[in-house]
Amino acid sequence: KKNWKKKMGSGLEWGFAGVCVFLCASLAVGAGIGGGALFVAVYILILGFDAHGAVPMSKATIFGLAVAAYCVNIWKRHPQRQGRPLIDYDTALMLEPMTLLGTLAGVVLNVLFPNWLVLLPLCVLLFVVSYRTIKKGLRIRKKELEMPRQDSMELIDRGEDSNDEGSGDNESGNQLSSNNSNSDMELDSSSITRGHIASKEARLVPMERILLLVLVWIGYFAISFLLFRADDVVKPCSGGWIVLFLFAVPYVSLITWVSGRMLAKATRKKKLCQYEFLEGDVMWEGDRLYKYPALAFFAGVAAAMMGIGGGMVKGPIMLAMGIQPQVATTTSSFMIIFTSSTTTIQYLILGKLDPTNLAIVMSLGFAGALVGQLVVNGLVAKYKKQSFLIFLLGGLTVISGIIIVSTSLAFESFTDTSLNTDDLCRVMADNTTMVEAAG
Fold first, then answer.
1. d(Cα 227, Cα 358) in Å, to the nearest integer?
2. Would you place residue 167 in the very low, low, confident or very high pLDDT band (cuts 50, 70, 90)?
3. DSSP labels for 382-419?
4. Contact at 8 Å (CB) between 142 and 386?
5. Is the pTM of this model over 0.85?
């Protein structure tokens, strides 16, 4: 076991590690990821912790990072509509529950699969994710460079259209006036509905969305703790353990279904009143109610099975959904709160995390993220460019992937090529088996 007092006494090492953690947190929060691989590398290489000591420290750092990001982003408004929060709570509500469910399955697969079967798909996934992310960043950058010319052309087109409309004869104008007169009641009703929708969207904290996410968090915390941390209460691989594991599926699926019904109803209402959707808005209807949560589930599976942060996968998913980069990164940072808080509390309860170290690394993550978030928001506001957020996400994904793969090749054995079915229950009974996914 590590000597906590010895670690606390090495001031020079902690000072250097603190600077590195601060910088890593500043970069990670800008990309909307937890940065777990970066923190683990710092704690192992500089402070000398092993993986079992570095991972809890990393989770606590990520928790501090996520809290700081939310403290800043909760006040931020959408770049195209000031009456709406920058965080997309609807998307978080549809993605985060299924991500948490996926982490439960991913932990089991991580134990079951041999090392090579974990590392190989990890390499493929990180390559695909980083490639698609950087490619999307290049497309957005190209649009940003062409934007001044496009804006002027759009203004010219609007002026020509308005002149053409004004040259119509009086008879057409009278007919339009008559039609408008007949639809006054409908327009008034639609205006009232749009006003009601706008007032609901203007809330800094939509409590019904937060309540559903908290319900998922409570269930996830209780189920994951009983499954992986309390073998004296629920014996691994017993009938009760299997029932509890399977119970997570209908629990999370029901909350996701209720959330989807609520958002689908809101989407229909917006369409009926001719609500003006913004570029990047997700219309929650049809197969989107199932496709995107399913992708989030596989993101959770990948995060837990391969030991990466869920933000590395969910960030590109949100970009592929068409969500604006600034909205995607802030929403991803918000979702990190739920997984990082759960694992941090569980590590603390089990004695895997020293309270003094917890306070230090959470403070470092909080401070670094606070500064990083303010700098990123300032750069976006000043230069009106969001492509660098995507490049930051893609770059950190590549760096994190290199660190994870290098660490695995250096410390893991790849001689065993069979499934670990015999060791599954024994490893599950070991308290060192943790839900390792960060949001």
1. 24
2. very low
3. HH---HHHHHHHHHHHHHHHHHHHHHHHHH------S-
4. no
5. no
